[in-house]
Design a protein that fits this description.
Length: 273
């Protein structure tokens, strides 16, 4: 894949990932960046990192596609997420209504896959952001914080198997376990709520182990598993002792801040091969 196209579109969700992506794409030589940003989700700072930004509401599919088509953008990426609660505030335009009516199942992969198909109709290809995001993905052998005990290593292995199955069933991408028992499974509420619930269920002595994975058939064009400082703050508040990531398939944002939080709160962060 050409990592330095003349123009590249960004469908930008929340938190820091769209900002990180814009900086990495610039460093790789992308000359022109056009962002379709979501009101009340996308960080306003993104405007200073791109050449053009168009603000829209969740569900304004026609406006998003036109934002790229009218500016001659032929390829775009999707980075960042939309808070689940805002999906209930969805006010789809006519094009989005047509997409939703055609879907028999409605989950992240079917919805975003359908969005990719609509983009393609207007000559715009939704591509993976991973060629630019490689530096943000920890590989096998990555580890921060206290060394894992044999018991916690066993919990990581156990939780990884469970998380893979849960993700295959389109339920979520994270589980929280302790001593071979599943405490929490991520659902619609998202990662932070799952961590908080699992950590509390681990009891006063803490020691919960959280595992974040990608689905076996994960479409890396969208919904890439991701953690950042807010994730570590949630772990600290809930007493989660270990955060395990699938190597090469999970984004680790604002690494310096995460490392500081991990060391301060004695949280182990490790990558699972």
């Amino acid at each position: 894949m050409n990592t330095a196209p003349a123009s590249l579109g960004i469908i930008a969700g929340n938190r820091s990932l769209p900002l990180e992506f814009a900086r990495l794409a610039r460093a790789a030589g992308v000359k022109r960046l056009v962002a379709a940003a979501v009101e009340n989700e996308t960080e306003p700072e993104l405007a200073s990192l791109v050449d053009d930004i168009i603000w829209l509401k969740v569900g304004q599919l026609s406006k998003m596609i036109s934002a790229f088509a009218d500016r001659g953008v032929k390829q775009c990426v999707m980075v960042g997420q939309i808070a689940p609660r805002h999906l209930f505030d969805l006010r789809p335009d006519l094009r989005a209504i047509g997409v939703l009516l055609r879907l028999k199942e409605k989950n992240a992969h079917t919805i975003f896959g359908a969005v990719a198909d609509e983009l393609k109709k207007d000559g715009i290809e939704l591509i993976e952001a991973t060629p630019w995001l490689g530096p943000l993905m920890p590989q096998a052998g990555f580890h921060i914080g206290p060394k894992l005990s044999d018991a916690r290593r066993a919990d990581v292995e156990f939780g990884f198997r469970i998380a893979k199955e849960v993700s295959r069933l389109e339920i979520g991408q994270m589980v929280v376990v302790k001593n071979g028992t599943v405490l929490a499974v991520e659902g619609f509420e998202g990662t932070d709520a799952c961590l908080d619930r699992g950590g509390r269920l681990a009891g006063r002595d803490g020691g919960a182990v959280a595992i974040k994975v990608a689905k076996a058939t994960h479409d890396m064009r969208f919904d890439i598993p991701c953690i950042g400082p807010r994730t570590l703050e949630t772990c600290a508040g809930a007493g989660v002792a270990v955060l395990a990531l699938e190597a090469g398939k999970t984004l680790f944002l604002e690494r310096d801040a995460c490392e500081t939080l991990a060391v301060k709160n004695k949280i182990s962060i490790t990558a699972i091969p």
